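queue> pop job 88
queue> type: inverse folding (structure -> sequence)
queue> payload:
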C-alpha cells in the first residue's frame, strides 16, 4: 500500500536552487484532516515554507475526537500522494520523531515533494488504540 505508485525520484539536481521567488507571497499552508472514522484529527504545521524538490519538515499533532490531545499514538505512516497524477514520492529520508514531553506531537523531517502542485498527506496511525486513516491537503508551490 505504502509503495503503491511510488515513483523513483531522480536525485540529480536535488540541490535545487534558491529560487528566491519572494514575489509569490507563498506561505506554508498548514492544514488538518479528520480520520475516516472521525476517531482523530491530525494537524500539520509546516516548519518552513513549502517547496518542491527540497526537504521540508512539519509538526504533526493528533487530537482525539473530543478535541483533547491524543493519549497515545503509534504506527504512523506519512505518505505524500499526488491525487491528480496518481503518484507518491520518495519517503527514504523521512524521519518521524516524538516531541518529548508530549503524547501526541511528532516532528516529521525529510519530507520530499518531487514536484509542485496539489498533494495530500495520506496518514495512517493508531490513536488511543484504534487504527484509522486521514488525508491532509497540501498545496506545494
Ligand atoms: Cu505529479
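queue> result:
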Amino acid at each position: 500500500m505504502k509503495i503503491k505508485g511510488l515513483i523513483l525520484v531522480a536525485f540529480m539536481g536535488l540541490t535545487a536552487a534558491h529560487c528566491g521567488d519572494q514575489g509569490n507571497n507563498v506561505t506554508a499552508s498548514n492544514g488538518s484532516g479528520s480520520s475516516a472514522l472521525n476517531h482523530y484529527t491530525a494537524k500539520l504545521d509546516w516548519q518552513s515554507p513549502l517547496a518542491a524538490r527540497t526537504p521540508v519538515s512539519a509538526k504533526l499533532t493528533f487530537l482525539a475526537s473530543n478535541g483533547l490531545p491524543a493519549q497515545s499514538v503509534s504506527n504512523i505512516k506519512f505518505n505524500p500522494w499526488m491525487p491528480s497524477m496518481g503518484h507518491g514520492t520518495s519517503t527514504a529520508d523521512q524521519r518521524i520523531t516524538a516531541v518529548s514531553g508530549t503524547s501526541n506531537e511528532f516532528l516529521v523531517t525529510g519530507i520530499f515533494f518531487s514536484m509542485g502542485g496539489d498533494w495530500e498527506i495520506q496518514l495512517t496511525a493508531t490513536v488511543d488504540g484504534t487504527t484509522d486513516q486521514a488525508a491532509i491537503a497540501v498545496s506545494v508551490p
